[in-house]
Design brief:
This is FTP domain-containing protein. It is a single chain. The chain is an alpha+beta fold. 13% of the residues lie in helices and 31% in strands. It has two helices and 13 strands, in the order H-E-E-E-E-E-E-E-E-E-E-E-E-E-H. The longest helix is centred in the C-terminal third of the chain and has 13 residues.
Length: 190
């Protein structure tokens, strides 16, 4: 014998979830956008919002991994407006009575002649100044070199000694080897 059938309510069908009509939007962060673009283009994309004086960040083509390239020396400096960067350029230019690199870290200025302030450097709250023993003549500029009669100064991306004493030794060394002995009364490096 068989058991009698018992009437049951039918099982409700599973709820239907409508299929998305638009693809999901790209992530809202600059990093998320760069990762999505790198995957789409199958190439490395720079994340410009993370750029600094000494580092560059990229989203890799796999859309998952970030790459950072870090440099010991600055490769770019903030532009005058402070809203972007410009590549380091140590070419010396004269403007407003001073000589300075076109684009370099650290507020370095050289004398344009007619005063004794050979070099000034200012970074944040720290400042250093080296004075010549007499009024400097107008220098000749050639690239990143300023040649004063009797000695030469060159700028480099890393010409920012960590102390005034080290800067003084560099200047005294240049004056000590100068053809004009009057430029360096001390005759030598301290």
């Amino acid at each position: 014998m068989s058991a009698p059938a018992i009437a049951q309510d039918p099982t409700p069908p599973p709820p239907t979830i409508p299929a998305p009509t638009t693809p999901p939007s790209a992530p809202a962060t600059p990093t998320g956008k760069a990762l999505a673009q790198a995957k789409k283009d199958n190439r490395r994309i720079e994340i410009e919002s993370l750029r600094s004086e000494r580092a560059t960040y990229y989203a890799n083509p796999d859309g998952k991994i970030l790459r950072m390239e870090q440099y010991l020396e600055p490769v770019r400096v903030k532009n005058a407006g402070g809203d972007g960067f410009t590549p380091v350029d140590t070419t010396l230019v004269e403007a407003d009575g001073i000589i300075k690199p076109k684009a370099a870290e650290g507020g370095l200025t050289l004398s344009a002649g007619g005063n004794t302030e050979a070099i000034k450097s200012k970074t944040g709250d720290i400042a250093a100044q080296i004075d010549a023993p007499r009024t400097l003549p107008k220098p000749t500029l050639n690239g990143s070199t300023a040649t004063y009669p009797g000695f030469t100064l060159r700028t480099y991306t890393h010409l920012m000694p960590s102390s005034e004493d080290r800067m003084r030794k560099a200047i005294d060394g240049a004056w000590g080897s100068a053809a004009d002995p009057g430029m360096c009364p001390e005759r030598g490096v301290r």
